[in-house]
Amino acid sequence: MADEGWIKLYRKIMKSFVWTNSDQLKLWLLVLMKANHSQNKFLFNGEEVSVSQGQFVTGVNTLGFEFNQGVKRDKAIAGRTLWRWLKRFEKEQMLTIKSTTKYSVISVSNWGEYQESVKHLSSVGQSPVNHLSTNKNDKNEENEKKSTIYSPVIDYLNQKAGTKYKSSGKNTQTLIRAREKDGFKLDDFKKVIDNKVAEWKGTDMEQYLRPITLFGTRFESYLNQKPVKPKQRQNFTQNNDQYSNLGW
């Protein structure tokens, strides 16, 4: 299972028995997030296990460890209790469990139908949470990369600062996408670049005309600073204490 991505939740879950118990709801979400979106192999308790879409390998102790990560000891749920809840999920036809002496393979019911289209979901029995979808990490990562301003932003930076950064860099795209999620637009990026080029180009700070500095957590303050005229620029070698907390 990938560590990133998302799952879909349908509002019908609010009518499910798991909705009235926050720990059971958390367990069901854990099941969905652990389910593999493609065929895979794992080494579990010294044995190689193959799983298909919608399946994952676990055991009582492993399930308890993953469920209780970050939880205070007095709030932790015993693995045996979690397994009893899983058996109820199986009874409600939300999943199936196939166990050996070393591991268990959990299969989310109707995984294929969940993956095909939200318009073709069918129910299994009377389970009130059948309309929970599964892990779609690949599609999520693909959608996140569909920003249209990577190239315009980096091309503008290279033009103004005389640099040669690539818009395809993963870290650069992550920074730009983060600022987009904050609500900033292409013109905002250009203004930040203009402000800092006017202030830093030709000084000892010119080395910081780079994506990791310009598009990081100080982006908004750079955007709202008053423009600096070239003749007002200073040699920052002699007085750079104000920049000591920028994380460079």
Would you write up a description of this structure?
Helices cover 39% and strands 12% of the residues. With 248 residues, it is α+β, with helices and mostly antiparallel strands. A three-stranded antiparallel beta sheet has the order 4-6-5. Strands 1-7 form a two-stranded antiparallel sheet.
For this entry, give a set of tags.
248 residues, two-stranded antiparallel ribbon, 10 helices
| Secondary structure: helix percent | 25-40%
Low-pLDDT stretches are: 116-136
Identify the quaternary structure here. Answer: single chain
Largest sheet: 3 strands, antiparallel
- How big a fraction of the residues is strand? 5-15%
Tally of contiguous helical segments:
10
Overall strand count? 7
How is this structure best summarized?
By secondary structure, the chain is of the alpha+beta class. It has helices spanning 22-34, 60-67, 79-91, 111-116, 137-144, 150-161, 170-181, 186-200, 211-214, 219-224; strands spanning 7-9, 40-44, 47-51, 55-58, 95-99, 104-108, 132-135.
Q: Secondary structure elements and their pairing?
A:
Blueprint: E1 7-9, H1 22-34, E2 40-44, E3 47-51, E4 55-58, H2 60-67, H3 79-91, E5 95-99, E6 104-108, H4 111-116, E7 132-135, H5 137-144, H6 150-161, H7 170-181, H8 186-200, H9 211-214, H10 219-224
Antiparallel strand pairs: 1-7, 2-3, 4-6, 5-6
